[in-house]
Write a structure and sequence with these properties.
4 copies of one chain form a homotetramer. Chain A is of the alpha/beta class and about 375 residues long. Chain A has helices at about 5-20, 40-50, 55-60, 80-85, 100-115, 130-140, 175, 180-195, 225-230, 330-345, 355-370; strands spanning about 30-35, 50-55, 70, 90-95, 120-125, 150-155, 200-210, 215, 230-235, 240-245, 250-260, 265-275, 275-280, 290-295, 305, 375. Chain A has 2 domains: about 5-125, 3-Layer(aba) Sandwich (Rossmann fold); about 130-325, Dihydrodipicolinate Reductase, domain 2, CATH 3.30.360. The first copy, chain A, is built from 11 helices and 16 strands. The first copy, chain A, is globular and about 65 Å long. The interface of A and C includes residues 153, 301 and 302 of A. Strand 15 (about 305) of chain C pairs antiparallel with strand 15 of chain D, so a sheet runs across the interface.
């Protein structure tokens, strides 16, 4: 695994936990953790349960005892690592967004397609697909319970930089992060929308905005906090993004991603209205799916608060009894389960790098549209 | 109508509104308002739309142009007025609780039974039965959607005297009010529970409590506020009441009524769990009924948030389109509709004085039980 | 009052009720109801409490005993009636949308400005401003509790024509209604957004859509239902509208209006995120305002569910005790209170016809933008 | 660890995870798993990550390489194992309820008190105390934000045996489980109530009930399902329990525990009303604490939905960013953290065996009271 910050911790917990709670067809070994700082990566490996460490990801790609590379670094390094790993015959799990540009994403998808021919698998980490309530929503859509989709409204609302004095982080640096709220969290909202509807966005009108253009430079980890606060650096990504969308199948979409919605901590919300019913989800109450069945008599019709914690619900049988909810990191365990199962079965896991590329193309069209002030068609 | 405070205002709004929104078989005339203070009752009558006034209810009972007496006074006067009115052949609508003692209630129920033989109708004002969401709940129970009832948990939570400096009012005076939270709001919770289940409470174990035993004496309306705050008088009723209950049909009940639940303003809540499903209601979100259907597949089972604002729902067709909710006073208009319709049809409206008496008996058993620290059987 | 359908009923209830619950400086008399069908308008007048009737609104405008004309007709007649009434020196209350075109709205606003010089008042009926929870939200914004507004997300979701077999009504006819979801309900969402923020939308990107282009022609009231269902007519307005917006003050807006959101009955929702806090409202739970105060310690910060039923909340003191919620029509009573108070005080009520015109311009820009597939500036 | 069913799985996940996410002062080793069936315990140990197995817990108590015994068996074996372990100088973590009888619990508490003198620690597994939202509630009570407690209403509602055809399990067998809903889940509600208020229940009036007295005998794991369904066995414990309580400090309590509340899957709910504010929690939305501060101005007072996922909230800093909620098993990890920290610090962890004994005494009084139909004092 490359990277050991927030995503690294979540992935490690998943690699440790999935084999303990699920019947996996293969037994993953957590062999090597990669980070540039030898000291820090050593401490992280010990804490997180990795057997060895490396300071250069290139050496890992060359190691024979590595079958799969899990990429948890900022987006600017995804392409190099993923392509090298795929070319070396390693399966790849890559955090989202797939890359910082469409060009990089295309090269990655090409590499994935080539590797696939030799049985090498690749997957991009849109883990929210694997929250049980979302997987249940997908099942209901596939069963036709929602009918033809007419509306998708999706929001991903956070507030962690609503305060103008919140420091610059790599996530506010276009070189590292590619984009701001749009790529970091808007990507999730978009992926969920396309995943749940089984449809793709073909045209967008976007609006991006940076509310706070300069911020205090974050001090080094070691704590030069005193001096840091006086110096400021530019924010080079969007603070917030909104866009309208047309889906190929005719549905209308309304999307919003922001880190400036005070009080909304991780509100990834999606609501779908179709010709037979509606679905609604909010990650801040992640074990719940709301479902409205238009076939119900008006006497008793209403949004049902389905607690997606029944053994019949996706992924749940491996965990606890009904009503004993899961948390954020469980989606990562389910990702490991699905990835390992696909590798063992010799099939391609989803979402693929092609899926990641398509998300990238939509986001790119949103940025273009925001600049041109006109609707933008998403290239097929 | 006798009395023109809070209940008088609500009843007046209902008498004015019901004929405008519903097709009533009779056209009610608001002829006379009664109050002891000539000046005040005159102002109230003009404001509320009553044609004339009286200062002694006895004269109203004698008037030939009065067909119905609506009693909105404190509980200590209910028996005298109601019995006199019934004996004079006037239909009677009496606010709850029916009376301040079982003895009074029995005499009232006797009078109502006698009057009924001459076609004189009587009704006690448990208006919450006529909130559309509650009336819908009743319909679902009658349709067997809940099955055999196993649990009833009902709470009526308010906070208007949680502050020990809140002044004494007649509602805290046993002579006027009969009891405190128990009779004022616990009566509503109990009536709803029995109404919805169609069952009666036969045995109780109660716990009553007065948290604040002395309070500032409320100044006269004219405003001697300065001197008032220094004088204190005793609170002679319960501040809060809780009781366990056994229903004749085997269900277990848990009841609570309090004016000390900070943040709960008018939280009349009831939840019923049966062998086929569950219902839940909270008056603070009064247009909603929650319903869980145990027959649903576990995939999609969940409490439905039914917005009881469809034309198919009880009373709603006369009002606004779906989603345009009703408010507190609409239950009073529905009470007028049902009462006037029953009178026109020559049938007895519900809840009857017998129903009111039975509620009184349960509340009396709760008080007895709280004192004796043992379960108490409710006399049949 | 001209018109006696849904809006006529709501306005009548308000004219009857406001003087009974509030201290009005003037005593409104409900003198004349206007409708084209003599028989029907007569029945309506009797039911709703109007003293006389007319079949031509022109005669009312000429009557000396009429001081105020309340217009509750479809949008295509607003301009003619309002301008004539204003020119005749009558105060005018006009239902929204102000008109079916910007041109009409401009002429109405001109007439209102001229009339104002002679002390004649005019007001457009965006009643949702007068829901207590909304009026409280406005107060909090004015007190600076939200800070600089960054995001407005507003939706007005209904589902009454989600079924393709729902019949054509005048609201689906461009000639009568001007537009569909956009003008009927999107106008409310837009007005609320501008009212609450105190800011105006200056640029929009819109997307309009008609999902069901033909519908059964509604039978005549008298009931030729049998033949009606076989004939179909065209839907000439939008079924749903979405638009992005830029506010003059820099806030980003995301708007949506639809009649195809199954399960959402009257979900007028608005959320505002500012530099100091956030507000959220949903009309389906209309007595509640949610407020997040960013100044709170993180230990106890959270959206507060404010039950806007305290006497300190706008309009509430005239009604019931805390927790005894209001309903849909109460906003209309508050509208009467504010209008009559303004007339008595000799000041202009809000929202003015200029406000209605500005809303019309934004909606017009949304339509233009949807057709041109490019952002559109709203004329000042 | 002894036992490897539901609780064993949860405890194992905690032992594996706590050292990975928290800085523990000691490094726990998962040395030995105990179960009677050699084959099954072997498979479980491998799955759950235990190094070795034993089939007799007595041998574990004798092993020198074991420092701590974690008891996850049904209640009838708790006393024997715990007392032996404590006498052998092993620290003990024992699942709740502490024992199946007050007598056993007293002997265990005695053993714990004796062992404590030699620095041997003991703890009973009321893990819900360690849900962050609950730990935050405790902090707010200790800070005086709730004031003097007047009301506690606590419910633990499940529905897993609401169907009369649900099979007999050891949890319905008095010999194994001691009691039914009362001891299994009512114990949690009671512990939370006493923990949060810092007060103890001194008097109770109880009502126990078994709705379904016979059930199908569960087939052996190997699957004799066909024959099993025809045979029935008696349910020897309560299906549901309710009780009123008086706290030493004067608060009134209302408790309910049931497995017959259709639609409530794991609804452990507690609401506390005090002289300064109120708190409310529902485990079905476990990352949320609701708090009402009576000191707030009435304009903005309301229950706050605190998402207890901030780094400042108890236990949260070790996990994910704000809004990324935790799940059921996290409380078990926090239990490991607190237990290991207490052992390392040489202090006694809580809840102690004395706390477990006191809970047992209250539950015993509830059972006695239910039989005698009178209030019962809880022995000190």
């Amino acid at each position: 695994m490359v990277g050991y910050a927030f995503m690294g911790a979540a992935h490690s917990q998943a690699w440790r936990t999935a084999p303990r709670m699920f019947d996996l067809p293969l037994a993953p070994e957590m062999s090597v953790l990669v980070g540039r700082d030898e000291h820090r990566v050593g401490a992280a490996a010990q804490r997180m349960g990795w057997a060895t460490t490396e300071t250069d990801w290139r050496r890992v790609v060359e190691r024979d005892d590595v079958d799969l590379v899990d990429i948890c670094t900022p987006g600017d390094t995804h392409a190099d690592i993923a392509i090298a790993a795929l070319e070396a015959g390693k399966h790849v799990l890559c955090e989202k967004p797939l890359a910082n540009s469409v060009d990089e994403a295309e090269r990655m998808a090409d590499a994935a397609r080539t590797a696939r021919e030799s049985g090498v698998r690749s997957m991009v980490g849109f883990t929210y697909r694997r929250v049980p309530a979302i997987a249940l929503a997908k099942r209901l859509v596939e069963q036709g319970r929602v009918g033809q989709v007419r509306h998708v409204r999706a929001q991903y609302l956070q507030d962690w930089i609503a305060d103008p004095e919140a420091p610059l982080s790599w996530r506010l640096d276009k070189k590292k992060a590619g984009s701001g709220a749009l790529g970091d969290i808007g990507a999730h909202a978009l992926d969920l929308a396309q995943f749940l509807t089984g449809d793709t966005v073909v045209e967008v009108s976007g609006n991006l905005r940076t509310f706070v253009t300069e911020r205090p430079i974050a001090s080094d980890h070691a704590g030069l906090a005193g001096t840091a606060s006086s110096e400021r650096g530019p924010v080079t990504v969007d603070d917030a993004a909104s866009f309208l969308a047309q889906f190929a199948g005719g549905a209308m979409g309304v999307f919003e991603a922001t880190r400036f919605a005070y009080g909304r901590k991780n509100a990834l919300r999606i609501e779908i209205n179709g010709s037979k019913g509606s679905l609604a989800f909010d990650f801040e109450d992640m074990n719940v799916l709301e479902f409205y069945d238009a076939a119900e008599s008006s006497d008793t019709a209403g949004f049902r608060r389905i607690l997606a914690t029944e053994p019949e619900h996706p992924y749940v049988a491996a965990w606890w009894p009904p009503g004993h909810g899961l948390g954020y990191e469980h989606g990562f365990s389910h990702q490991v389960v699905d990835l390992v199962s696909a590798i063992a079965a010799g099939v391609d896991p989803t979402p693929s790098f092609d899926d990641g590329l398509q998300v990238q193309r939509v986001l790119d069209a949103v940025e273009t549209s925001s600049a041109s002030r006109a609707w933008q068609t998403v290239p097929a």
